[in-house]
Specification:
Elements lengths: L8 H25 L3 H27 L10 H18 L1
Length: about 90
Protein backbone atom coordinates (compact mmCIF):
# COMPACT_ATOMS: atom_id res chain seq x y z
CA UNK A 1 0.00 0.00 0.00
CA UNK A 2 1.56 3.27 -1.14
CA UNK A 3 0.42 6.46 0.50
CA UNK A 4 1.74 9.62 -1.08
CA UNK A 5 0.96 12.74 0.81
CA UNK A 6 1.02 15.99 -1.09
CA UNK A 7 1.93 19.08 0.80
CA UNK A 8 -0.35 22.06 0.58
CA UNK A 9 0.86 25.34 -0.83
CA UNK A 10 0.74 26.78 2.68
CA UNK A 11 2.93 23.99 4.06
CA UNK A 12 5.43 24.37 1.21
CA UNK A 13 5.64 28.12 1.64
CA UNK A 14 6.07 27.76 5.39
CA UNK A 15 8.93 25.32 4.76
CA UNK A 16 10.50 27.75 2.28
CA UNK A 17 10.19 30.60 4.76
CA UNK A 18 11.81 28.56 7.53
CA UNK A 19 14.58 27.45 5.18
CA UNK A 20 15.32 31.02 4.09
CA UNK A 21 15.52 32.12 7.73
CA UNK A 22 18.09 29.36 8.35
CA UNK A 23 20.06 30.34 5.24
CA UNK A 24 20.15 33.98 6.43
CA UNK A 25 21.37 32.84 9.82
CA UNK A 26 24.13 30.74 8.22
CA UNK A 27 25.26 33.69 6.08
CA UNK A 28 25.40 35.88 9.20
CA UNK A 29 27.66 33.36 10.91
CA UNK A 30 29.86 33.11 7.84
CA UNK A 31 30.18 36.89 7.62
CA UNK A 32 31.11 37.32 11.27
CA UNK A 33 33.61 34.44 11.13
CA UNK A 34 35.31 35.53 7.90
CA UNK A 35 38.50 37.58 7.90
CA UNK A 36 38.73 37.82 4.09
CA UNK A 37 37.16 41.04 2.86
CA UNK A 38 36.26 39.56 -0.55
CA UNK A 39 34.51 36.61 1.07
CA UNK A 40 32.71 38.90 3.53
CA UNK A 41 31.52 41.07 0.65
CA UNK A 42 30.28 38.03 -1.31
CA UNK A 43 28.51 36.55 1.72
CA UNK A 44 26.92 39.93 2.47
CA UNK A 45 25.58 40.06 -1.08
CA UNK A 46 24.23 36.51 -0.71
CA UNK A 47 22.66 37.48 2.63
CA UNK A 48 20.93 40.48 1.06
CA UNK A 49 19.58 38.26 -1.73
CA UNK A 50 18.33 35.69 0.80
CA UNK A 51 16.68 38.38 2.89
CA UNK A 52 14.85 39.63 -0.20
CA UNK A 53 13.66 36.11 -1.04
CA UNK A 54 12.60 35.58 2.58
CA UNK A 55 10.59 38.80 2.49
CA UNK A 56 8.90 37.85 -0.79
CA UNK A 57 7.83 34.50 0.67
CA UNK A 58 6.68 36.16 3.90
CA UNK A 59 4.71 38.79 2.00
CA UNK A 60 3.03 36.19 -0.23
CA UNK A 61 2.01 34.24 2.88
CA UNK A 62 0.80 37.40 4.59
CA UNK A 63 -1.32 38.35 1.59
CA UNK A 64 -2.96 34.91 1.67
CA UNK A 65 -3.66 35.24 5.38
CA UNK A 66 -1.23 32.44 6.25
CA UNK A 67 1.15 34.58 8.30
CA UNK A 68 -0.51 36.84 10.82
CA UNK A 69 1.42 39.84 12.02
CA UNK A 70 0.81 42.21 14.85
CA UNK A 71 1.36 45.83 14.02
CA UNK A 72 3.49 47.59 16.59
CA UNK A 73 2.09 50.78 18.00
CA UNK A 74 4.26 53.87 17.67
CA UNK A 75 5.01 54.01 21.41
CA UNK A 76 6.47 50.47 21.31
CA UNK A 77 8.58 51.37 18.28
CA UNK A 78 9.95 54.50 19.96
CA UNK A 79 10.65 52.54 23.15
CA UNK A 80 12.62 49.93 21.20
CA UNK A 81 14.58 52.62 19.34
CA UNK A 82 15.46 54.34 22.60
CA UNK A 83 16.54 51.07 24.22
CA UNK A 84 18.79 50.03 21.35
CA UNK A 85 20.27 53.50 20.89
CA UNK A 86 21.20 53.48 24.59
CA UNK A 87 22.84 50.09 24.22
CA UNK A 88 24.68 51.24 21.11
CA UNK A 89 25.94 54.31 22.95
CA UNK A 90 27.18 52.18 25.86
CA UNK A 91 29.15 49.96 23.47
CA UNK A 92 30.98 52.87 21.83
Amino acid sequence: MNHHRSFSEKELMNDLLTSEKQVCSAYNVGITESSCSNLRQHLTSCLNDSQQIQYQIFDAMRQRGWYQIKKANSQDVMSAKTKYNQEKTQLQ
